[in-house]
Amino acid sequence: MGNSLHPETGRLLELETLKTWSLIVTLFGDLEGRELTGSQIRNLLGHVRIRPEAIRTALYRLKSDGWIDSEKQGREALYKLSEQGHRKSHQAISTIYEKTLKFPDGWQFSFQKDKPDTSDAIAISKDLYVIPVRSGERNIKGLTFDLANSHIPDWFAEQLMPENLVKNANVLIDVVSNYKTDTIAGSTGKDALVLRLLVLHHWRKLALRPGCWAYMFYVPDGVFSKCQNTVTTFLHETPRLKSALL
């Protein structure tokens, strides 16, 4: 594990402790259904100093949870997304890779006694939630209302996306901007592959939070809108992590 890290890779690794199983989910989601051997996975993740035993444990967990399938190929194990893994990855593709705004009909506030029956609800206080408007329909289970103006106070913005996630978004914007003027830009070497994987992974963790999209709706010119535009442009301009590149 004596490999030197590219400075921008190091910045992404410092954002938070990586969960190996989650990083592998990101990796397979970017492979467009391709398969990888255990050696290929260890070779790539070893570049960011993830130990082989951690990778083995993560692969075992993902297989046990039904995310991936494996089969023997000679002395190697070959891994790919399971049918369940494909389905869950497909559901997240438009959220993570596209420039479109999730929940284009906007968001509304709802006072209600019981927790809304949607995983996209954001709790502001005990009985107050922010929930997405779906296909123009209003929530009829609670007392709903919209903001009278487009301005939201800082304390409310922090309820949607805490300050540490604002920091992560700013780092992603900066890293991608630096990458475009770096010598590894356009490369298919390991540094470029790892950088794409980490940018995608950190953006995925932001984009799969409902608060990210509510924040974009209420602060359309804010950091998360800029992060989405910067990162999705980067993802479309750089090659996916297909096994041929590993």
Q: Which structural class fits the helix and strand makeup?
A: alpha+beta
Mean residue pLDDT: 88
N-C termini distance: 18 Å
| Helical content class | 40-55%
- Biggest sheet, open or closed, and with what strands and sense? 4 strands, antiparallel
The shape is globular
* Widest β-sheet, arrangement of strands: 5-6-4-7
Whole-angstrom Rg: 20 Å
> Which percent range describes the beta-strand content?
5-15%
SSE order: HHEHHEEHEEEEHHHHH
- Spans of 5+ residues with little confidence (pLDDT < 50)? none
| Total of DSSP H or I helical runs spanning 4+ residues | 10
**How many distinct beta strands?**
7
Summed up, the domain count is 2
What does this molecule look like?
This protein has ten helices and seven strands. With 246 residues, it is α+β, with helices and mostly antiparallel strands. The chain has two domains: 79 residues, Winged helix-like DNA-binding domain superfamily/Winged helix DNA-binding domain (Arc Repressor Mutant, subunit A, Orthogonal Bundle), CATH 1.10.10; 147 residues, no CATH class. Strands 5-6-4-7 form a four-stranded antiparallel β-sheet. Strand 2 and strand 3 form a beta hairpin. Helix 1 packs antiparallel against helix 7 and helix 7 packs parallel to helix 10. It is globular. The two termini are 18 Å apart.
